[in-house]
Amino acid sequence: MTDDITKLARMNIQELQPYQSARRIGGEHGDIWLNANESPVSFQFKLKKKIFNRYPECQPRYLISSYADYVGIFPNQVLATRGADEGIELLIKAFCKPKKDAIIYCPPTYDMYKISAKIFDVIVKEIPTFQNTWKLDLLNIQSNLNQVKLIYICNPNNPTGNIISKQDLIFLLEITKNKSLIVIDEAYIEFSPKDSMVSYLKKYSNLVILRTMSKAFALAGIRCGFTLAQKNIIKILNKVISPYPISVPVSDIATQSLNINFIKLMESRVLDLNNNRIWLINKLKNISCVEKIFVSHANYLLVKFFMFEEIFKMLWDKGIILRNQNKKKNLEKCLRITIGTRLECSRLIEELKIFSKNNISKRGFNEK
Ligand code: PMP
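C-alpha cells for the assembled complex are given below, as produced in the milestone run.
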C-alpha cells in the first residue's frame, strides 16, 4: 500500500475542479484557434532592457504611469499584476476571511471568480443572470449581501458578450456602499470603450476595475493586467502581492505597447475585429445549423447550434478550435467563437455551410 501524500492538501483543494483553460483543453491542436479570445495577430518587439541579473521593481514605475495615462487616472490608483487573473485572486486574499466571508458571482460568466474563492475557502454565492437577456438579478443580489465582501461583474460578459447597463452597475455601487466592493472585470472593454466605469472611480470608494493586456492589446503571452481603484485599496493590495510579480521583459513590452502609436494600432485592430464580428454574424444568419446568435460587444460571439456536438467535433477535426459552453449554466448547445482574421472567419463559415448542406433536415433544422 502506498501512502497518499496528497491527503495533506487542504480538503477544499483536494475537492477543487481547476480552471479548464482553453490551452489546457485544446493543447496546441489545430491551426485556427478561436477558443481563448486572444488576438489573431501579433506585433514584434525589441527588448530595450537586456540585462537581467537584478530583480525588477515590484510595481514598475513607467508601466504604472503609462497605464494611468492611458486610462486617465492617477498612478497611485493602478496596480500591475500577472494578468487580470492575479487581480481577481489578490482581492480575495486581501478582503475575504476563509469560511466566513463570501463573494457573489453571476453565471454564466468567467469561472475564475468562483475558482479563486474556492481556493481560499471563501463562500461562493451564485446568483445567475436572467436567461437570454443576461441581465443581473439585482433584487436577488440585494437580498443576499450578508457577509459578501466582493461582487464580481464581467462587462462585457464572457462568454455571453452582453453589456451590463451603467444604471444597474450604479444601483449595485449604491446599495453596497461601505459594505462590499463591486469588482468590474473590463478585460474586453476596449471592444466597447463607452461602457467603461473608469470615470466612476472618483465617486465610488467601493469600485474596483480589472483590466488586461491579453485581449485588445494582443499580449496574452506576456501575462500583464491591472487593477484600478481608489488609492487606499491599491495600498491594501500592494501588501499581499508577491515581491516581484512583473518581470523585466514583461514591463518592457507592456510599456512599449502603451505608447500612443501602439494605442492607435490597437484601436484600429479593434475596429477590424468589430467589423469581422458584424461580417460573421451576417454570414451565420444564413446558415441553417445556427439556432441563435447572441448580441456581442466583444471579440467573441456566443452561438447556439442545432447538432452543436457534431459541429464542435467536425470543426476540431478540421483544425478549427472553438470553446464548448454547453455545460455552463443556461448555455445548452452553445459554442463560443473568438473573432479571428477575416480569412479565419471565412474558413469557419465554409465548413459550417458544408456541414449544414450535408445534414439538412436532420434534428430540426431546415434550409434558410
Ligand atoms: N477576465 C475575463 C473575463 C477573461 O475572459 C480573462 C481571460 N480569459 C481574464 C479575466 C484573465 O485575463 P488575463 O490574461 O489578463 O489573466
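Residues 94 and 113 are 14 Å apart (CA to CA). The chain has two domains: 5-38+262-355, 61-260. Further analysis is deferred to the final report.
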